[in-house]
Amino acid sequence: xxxxxxxxxxxxxxxxxxxxxxxxxxxxxxxxxxxxxxxxxxxxxxxxxxxxxxxxxxxxxxxxxxxxxxxxxxxxxxxxxxxxxxxxxxxxxxxxxxxxxxxxxxxxxxxxxxxxxxxxxxxxxxxxxxxxxxxxxxxxxxxxxxxxxxxxxxxxxxxxxxxxxxxxxxxxxxxxxxxxxxxxxxxxxxxxxxxxxxxxxxxxxxxxxxxxxxxxxxxxxxxxxxxxxxxxxxxxxxxxxxxxxxxxxxxxxxxxxxxxxxxxxxxxxxxxxxxxxxxxxxxxxxxxxxxxxxxxxxxxxxxxxxxxxxxxxxxxxxxxxxxxxxxxxxxxxxxxxxxxxxxxxxxxxxxxxxxxxxxxxxxxxxxxxxxxxxxxxxxxxxxxxxxxxxxxxxxxxxxxxxxxxxxxxxxxxxxxxx
Length: 418
Known about the structure:
- By secondary structure, this protein is α/β, with parallel strands linked by helices.
- It contains eleven helices and 24 strands.
- The longest helix is centred in the middle third of the chain and has 20 residues.
- The radius of gyration is 23 Å and the shape is globular.
């Protein structure tokens, strides 16, 4: 069984650092207007993007740049300049969705690998072979593809890498080819500015052409989230997928999601991959960790089961629900924390840190760090800033940095079960 790459989202420089700290083998990010996530692309400028590439390479990891939008003619010259910039930054690969942009990339930056975006909808070995011949070293498979089909593609095109999504938001439309946002909001999903109209609640009506009578169809009092897909979660299937030796990279969706999401999802799938390699795979462990994230309900999508076998991949009653845990604070440097929710005195909070981190037990005038029931916990006797300002409790919105009782790993989170 070969070890599969873990690919995590980097919506900005901080999330990139978190992904690397929490065990990602590679990250993907975008800059400018040529990605399907323009909101996250705007969080990078040339300086921070360059720094992200450098940091990634210093850690011996890989950096993939997304250029997977569907451009109009007026954007072609801009894409040429963008590819030239990515060439100079020496990214490891470009994720591209269209044959034309692939051809540009091969012409301008032939030394940079091309990964074919999931937007290209590869479902079979014929299409995979054609794109491989055009220069793609990897395909990001369509989410609708089955594991059996992935195995067949690897058999027929053995030198082509296959990347699959294992976690994150699912689109109601086939492989993300949706026009609802463009029709309702004037925001084009396949140019990176989807308004997520499928996540809204709708009221449904039936009209009789005979007499014009209009009837409201009620799912519940607030309408129905009829197009709201559940979130993909393949955490419990990682070992089974790895045993096929057909998949080369596991991709986590979520460049616009929270810092905690990047940390927790990366950590969970890092554990799953490493445990599978060590022969000690424990599905309940990864399921518990991933359930701590806010989600729309989870589904294992279509890789493992056929579409007609699915009971439900839609969350009809609610757009989003809380995870099992609430994040209360984050510490970027391990010395002070910033509040995300609320921190009270003499209250235990779980410490979430990168795998294999050394957490020192300590008790002093500021607080104590200790282990209990397999968890690392922290309690505060004092909430004080470096300048000596004290608080009896501290809430989100308070920008003061509060001293920790002991040095913790970089990008540590404090959380509490809801």
